[in-house]
Amino acid sequence: MKEYTYYQGCSLEGTAAAYDSSIRLVMKSLGVALTEPPDWSCCGSTPAHAVDRLLAGALAARNLAIVERMGSRTLLTPCPSCLSAFKKAQHAMASDKTFKEEVNGLLDSPYDCTVTAKSALQVLYEDIGTGEIARPVTTALPGLRVAPYYGCILNRPPKIAAFDDPENPVSMDRILAAVGVDVADFAFKLECCGAAFGVPKKEMVLKLTAKVLSMALDAGANCIAVACPLCQQNLDLRQSQVNKALGQSFAIPVLYFSQIMALTYGYTPQEAGLTKNIVGPGALIAARRPVEQQPVEQARSASE
Amino acid sequence: MRVGVFICHCGNNIAGTVDVARVAEETRKLPGVVYATDYVYTCSEPGQNEIKKAITEQGLNRVVVAACSPRMHEVTFRRTVEKAGLNRYFFEMANIREHCSWIGEDKEENTAKAIEAVRMAVAKVILDKPLHSSSFPVKKRVLVIGAGVAGMQAALDCADGGLETVIVEKSPSVGGMMARLDKTFPTIDCSICILGPKMVDVAQHELITLHAYSEIEDIKGYVGNYTVNIRKKATYVDWTKCTGCGECMEKCPGKNAYDYFNYGVAPTKAMNIPFPQAIPKKAKIDRQYCRQFTKGKCGVCAKVCPTKAIDYEMEDRIVTEEVGAIVVASGYGLLDIEKLPEYGAGRYPDVITGIQYERLLNASGPTQGHIQRPSDGVEPKTVVFVSCAGSRDKSIGVPYCSNFCCMYTAKQAILTKDHIPDSRSYVFYMDVRAPGKGYDEFTRRAQEEYGVRYIRGRVSRIYPKGKKMVVKGADTLLGAQVEVEADLVVLAIAAIAAPGAAALAEKLHISYDTNGFYVESHPKLRPVETNTAGVFLAGAAQGPKDIPASVGQGSAAAAKVLSLLSKDMIESEPVISTVNVSACVGCMKCVKTCPFQAIEETTVRGKKVASVIETVCAGCGVCTSTCPCGAIQLSHFTDNQLLAEVNTLCRM
Asked: Is B348 in the A-facing interface, judged by CB distances under 8 Å?
C-alpha cells in the first residue's frame, strides 16, 4: 500500500472542499493512504511571496520541516498555489546556502531540504500510472466531453515545477482518458483565468474567463476539468457574472478532475461533492451507467 | 647551452596586465639563459628579425618566445629559428596571453604566473632534441562528404583542377537543401534551374565518382593517405539496370510512405524517385512502407520493371576508396517541430515549416506550385510567418541565430503575394537580420512594395479557432498584444546540426561545438581547415549559412585541397611516439588505447613488442601515459621534458 503525506491547505478546507473529498475518495480506491502532517500552517500562498521572499520561504519551509521530521520524502498537495510555494522554497533553499540559513534562522526546527512536493496530478500520473488508474473504473460517463484546464502554475516555471510539458501539458488529458472519459483537444489549457485579480480588477477577470469558457465550447467540450481551486472558482462561480457583464449564456460545469475520476469509480454525485458546484452538471451525470453495458450500447447504436 | 627568451607585449594584450620588462629581467637570472628581452609585436617581421639577429649575435642555440598560444604562432616562430640555422624543434612557446594576461586582472599575479610559464618553457627547451621530418607520397584523390551545393561546388572545383573526386551522399540524389527550395533570395532565381546544371556536371564529370544513398562506414589513415569504407545502402533496385522510367513508382501500391524530399507535405510511394530532376534518377524502395517487406507479398514493381532491375534480396555493400584529403560538407538539419509545443508541436496541420512551404510554392512540388493549406487544400488568404521559430532560444538549446531565416521569410512572403494577389501576409520578427549584398533592400521591398506586414515581437501561442489558426503575440513597437487569424502559419524553424553530425565527426577525428556544428581551425584565419590535417569544411556543417556563403566555402575548401595535393610528397610531423624495445614488456596496452590505430604488435629478436606506425601516429600522447614501464615516449614531449617543467615549477 502506497502512503503519502497529504497537505490539504486552506482552500481545500473551504471553497474547494469538493476537491479534497474527491481526492480522498480516489486515493482510497487506488489503495493510497494519506496522512495529514500535525500542526500544519499556511503555505504563504500569493500574498507572502508578493511581500517578502524570506518570510514566504519560512512559511513554506515550516511545513516542509514537519514533513521531514515525519520521515516522509514526498508531500502530496492538490492545490497548485501550495505546490508552487513548497517547490519554490525547496528550490531556493537547496540551491542557495545563505538563503537556507536565513530561513532556518526563522524556524524553531531547521529544514534540511529533503522533501519533494508533488501535485495530485503528478502523483497519479507518475507514481501510480494510468494503468493502475484505469483499474477501479466501474462507471462510464457517456456524453461527457471534457476540456482539461491546467492553469498557469501547476507545471511552471519548468525548472522548478519539473513536471509535464510547460507549454502543452498532457497528464490530466491522459488520466481522464484512462478512466474512459472523452477528452477534447483544448488549446487554452494554460490560458490565464485571471487568478486572484478577481478582487482588484473584476472586469479583466471576467473577460479572461469568458475566453477560456468559449474556447472550451469551440473545442466541442461540455465540461471543463480543473486541478486548481482558484481556476475552479473563476470559471464556475463567476460564470453568471460573465453572462451578465458580457451578455453571454455560458452554462458549462467546471469539475475537479478528481470529481470526474470519483464518478467513474462508482461514487455518487453527492459523495464526489457535485452538490458544491455552482453550474450544475446534472444532465451530464444523469447519463452515467456501469461500464459493462457500454459495449452493448455501442453495438445497438451501431446497428441502428 | 645558450637560451634566448623573447617576451612579447602583443600590443596591450599582454603588456596591459603583465609587467613584461620584469618577466624579461627575472628570466635573465635563469640558468642557461644568456639573453632575454621584451618586444612589442614579436610575430611581426621586425620582431622575427630580432630573434634571428639575436641567434647570430648572441650565439643562441635554443629559443623561447613568451607570447600567445602555440596554436596561433608556433609554426611561425619555428620557421624563424630554422631560417637562422637552428633545428626548428629547438624552440618553445610560453603561453602568457590566453593562459595568463587575458584571464587575470591582477598585474602582480599575472606577472608572477608569466614568469613561471617562462621558467617551464626554458626548462623544457634545454632538453629539446633536434627532430627531422621525413616525407611520404600522397594519394591525389579527394573525398567529398555530402552533395549539397557546398559539397558539389567543392567536388567540381577539385575535379576541374584535375583531381579524382569521390562524392558520398546520404540521400538517393545530389542537390541537398537547395534542390528543395523554390526561389532564391534576393534575386528570385529559380533554385533548381541554377542548381540543376551543377548537378548534371557532377554526374557527368569524368573525374567524379558519385556514391549516392551511401554513408561513411569508417575512415582510417592520415593526411595524404586515407582509406575510406563506404556503406552503399540497399536500394532493392539494381541501379546499373534502372533507367529511371518511373513505371514502378506509378504502379507501386504502397501509397503512404513518408516523403523525405518533400518533408512530408504529401505522402509518396514505397518505391520512389525523390524528385523529377534527381541525380542519379534512380528508384529505391523504402522498406518500412513496402508491402513486399512488411506483408511478404506484392512484387508489383518486379513485374512492371521493363529492365528487371528489382532485387528484393539486395544487401548493403561496402566499397573502399583511397584518398589524400577529405572535404566535409554534410549540411544541416532542422529543429523538430515537436520542440515547440506553444506552436502546436506539429499537432495542427496548418502550422508548417519554412521548408515545407518551399515545397508548396514549388512548381514541381506535390501541389504543382499552388499554395494549398494541408488541412483542406484551400488556398490561404492570410498567411502568418514566424521568423524565429526556435532560433535564439536558449531554453530549447538553440542560442544562436539560424542565419538565413529572415531572408527566406521575406522571400516567401513576396512569393505568397505573387501566387495569391489578394492575400495578406504577416511576419513576426525579433530583428530583421539582412546584412548581405542586396539583402536589406530585399526585405524593404517585401514591406514597401508587397505590403507584407512586419510585426516586431514574438509569438506566444498558436491555436485553432474553427478553420483558422489564431496567432497570438506581442507587437513590441506598439506595446500591445496582437492576435492574427490566419489560414496558414509558416514557422521559420531553427537550423540545427545535421542528424548524425557527431558520429561523423568521431570517424573523422574532428571537433564540433556545443551546438553540434563542426569547428574550424581558426574562426577568422583558417575558416575551412579543421585541426585534423587533410580534413576541410564547407557549407552549413560548420554553422548555418546561405547559398552564396556555402558556395564560397565549397570553393575555398577545394582550393585548400588542390594546394595540399599539388605536392607529390608531404612532410611528416616528427613529433610522434617511439618504443624503446628493450624496456617494452609487450603488454600491448598502448595498442588498445591508441585512438588512431597507429600502434601494432611486432616481434624483435623473438620478443613481442609494440611498434608505432610513423605515418599514422598523430602525436596525441595517450599511449605514453598508458605505458606501465615508460617504454613508449612521445618525442618533443618526453617524460624527462615534462618532469623538468614540473620540477622547475615546484622548486619556486
From this structure: no
In chain B, which residues have their Cβ closer than 8 Å to the Cβ of A187?
461, 463-465
Chain A residues within 8 Å of chain B (Cβ atoms): 158, 165-168, 185, 187-188, 215, 218
For the domain that residue B217 is a member of, what is the CATH number?
3.50.50.60
Q: Which residues contact B121 (CB under 8 A, 6 or more apart)?
A: B5, B64, B66, B92, B93, B94, B645
- Residue B155's contacts (CB-CB under 8 Å, 6 or more residues apart) are B142, B144, B147, B165, B167, B202, B205, B208, B327, B558
Query: Do B342 and A185 count as a contact with CB atoms less than 8 A apart?
Result: no
Kindly tell me the sign of the dihedral angle through the C-alpha atoms of B546, B548, B552, B555.
positive
Q: Contact A167/B342, CB-based, under 8 Å?
A: yes
The total number of residues shown for chain A amounts to: 304
Model confidence over A44-74: pLDDT tens digits? 988 898 899 999 999 999 999 999 999 999 9
Domain map (residue ranges) of chain A: 2-120, 138-296
Q: Are residues B484 and B355 part of one domain?
A: yes
Element (H, E) at B37: strand B33-39
Please check whether the domain covering A2-120 is classified as CATH 1.20.1050.140.
Answer: yes
Q: How close B388 gets to chain A, by Cα (Å)?
A: 17
Rounded to whole angstroms, the Cα distance separating B172 from A16 reads 62
- Predicted ipTM? 0.81
Indicate whether B374 belongs to any domain. yes
B345, B395, B465: residue with CB nearest A168: B345
Q: If pLDDT is split at 50, 70 and 90, which confidence band does A294 have?
A: low
Contacts of B347 in chain A (CB under 8 A): 185
d(CA B171, CA B146): 9
Q: What is the mean pLDDT of residues A38-44?
A: 95
Interface touch B341/A168, C-beta < 8 Å: yes
Q: Is B260 helix (H, G, I), strand (E, B) or coil?
A: coil
Burial class for B533, CB neighbours closer than 10 Å (0-12, 13-18, 19+): middle
Could you tell me how many CB contacts below 8 A there are between chain A and chain B? 20
CATH of region A138-296, choose from 3.40.50.1820, 3.40.50.11810, 1.20.1730.10, 3.40.50.720? 3.40.50.11810
Same domain, B178 and B210: yes
Here the cell at position A245 is 457583464
- The alpha carbon of residue A191 is apart from the nearest alpha carbon of chain B, in Å, by 10
Dump pLDDT digits (tens) for B388-422. Answer: 999 999 989 999 999 999 999 999 999 999 999 99
Please check whether residue B467 touches A, CB under 8 A. Answer: no
Question: What is the longest distance spanned by two Cα atoms in chain A?
Answer: 73
Question: Do residue A168 and residue B465 have CB atoms under 8 angstroms apart?
Answer: no
Residues B507 and B485 reside in one and the same domain: no
Given this model, what pLDDT does residue B581 score? 93
Cell numbers given for B520: 574550424
Question: Does B582 map to a domain?
Answer: yes
Distance from CA of A231 to the nearest CA of B (A): 20
Neighbours of B246 (CB within 10 A): 14
Mutate to test the interface with B, among A167, A190, A204 (most CBs of B within 10 A): A167
Q: Is B227 helix (H, G, I), strand (E, B) or coil?
A: strand
Closest-CA residue to A147 (of A219, A237, A210): A219
Which ranges of B565-638 would DSSP assign to H, the alpha helix? 589-593, 622-626
Whether residue B522 is contained in a domain is answered as yes
B639: contact with A, CB 8 A cutoff: no
Q: Exposed, middle or buried by CB within 10 Å (0-12, 13-18, 19+), for A298? A: exposed
Please check whether residue A72 is in contact with residue A51, taking contact to mean a CB–CB distance below 8 angstroms.
no
The rounded distance, in Å, linking the Cα atoms of B565 and A84 is 65
Give the number of other Cβ atoms within 10 Å of residue A57's Cβ.
Answer: 29
